[in-house]
Design a protein that fits this description.
Blueprint lengths: L4 E7 L6 E7 L2 E5 L1 E4 L11 H7 L4 E4 H6 L3 H6 L3 H5 L5 E4 L2 H6 L4 E3 L4 E4 L6 E4 L1 H11 L3 E3 L11 H21 L6 E6 L5 H11 L6 E4 L8 H11 L9 E3 L5 H9 L4 E4 L1 H7 L2 E2 L6 E2 L19 H5 L2 H9 L3 H28 L2 H14 L2
Parallel strand pairs: 4-14, 5-6, 6-10, 10-11, 11-12, 12-13, 13-14
Antiparallel strand pairs: 1-2, 2-3, 7-8, 8-9, 15-16
Amino acid sequence: MTHFAFHLDATDTETAARAGRWETPHGVVDTPAFMPVGTLATVKGLLPEQLKATGAQMVLSNTYHLALRPGSDIVKEMGGLHKFMDWEGPILTDSGGFQVFSLAGLRKLTDEKAVFRSHIDGSLLELSPEKAVKIQEDLGADCIMCLDECPPANDVPEKIKAAVDRTTLWAKRCRDAQVRDDQALFGIVQGGISEEMRTRSAEGLVPLGFPGYAVGGLSVGEAPVDMYRTLDFTVPHLPVEKPRYLMGVGRPEDILEAVYRGIDLFDCVLPTRNGRNAMAFTSDGPVRLRNAVHQRDERPLDPECDCTACTRYSRAYLRHLFIAKEMLGGILLSLHNIAFYQKLVRDLRNAVNSGTVAQFRANQLARWQAQS
């Protein structure tokens, strides 16, 4: 797979944190990196040039949702996902595996495939490993994911083991079904918060030789301390020379802790979802703009941020937009939150390169906790 190369530029001597460069057909991604979520080929409310201005390098879209509408055949006919959504940088597509978890009431699951009843119109969508790969090849993302089964965090051991083994079985079928050589297919390590099951999953997947590996099945109801502990015993099983992706995570403190433990790539809906609901992430912790305390506040949202929301508008104005139910409020806070996440991963890259990750982590956590 000559279209991709992962270079480790620095590894922190006191922690497992690392900084690198991931070469893809649509550009280089500096890691650690955060991918804004554009489920339906759009990061809600934001133009591609606005995303780029935040420092975003790569975005994520979703196989299941795009298969339902507009259909992967239409995206392919329109020139692929990059042209369709006018995003020139790298794109990653999830396989639909998370919907196996989140839409459990609307699907039937066997070793052969998952069959969904559409949450839109009730029609059936079959996702086998082969179908998931074919849809993602039609979409044309740079990085595609194996179809997996994500079990609930509190599931019984027998079901977690079955999900691990099915995920490994499906990964082999995904690998064998892949036709395009310009897409990096990642295997996904499952296993809940069990060290035995995470080890079993990694040992089944690593010999398959994927160009990158994801850690799935976290941030699905477990306590943060359990997430971090799971990363402690999972990440060491993943190849050092390949990118490591923690799926669907998360809060700023989760990203900080995961980079500390050796993760390279992240995605999460929180920046835009919380932005649409009047909650901003800032250097001093969360700000809830519907609170009356901001009614006459002339200060910027975050003095350390250079995004449009922070350099042009006051907290009072931003609060007014939400109280008046003006859509600009959600747009500006989504923009700010993504810019905040991009600054966080840039700062982490700099900390790795300067050998100060432990100090950066301690200082940042103390600062956020002081405001909680």
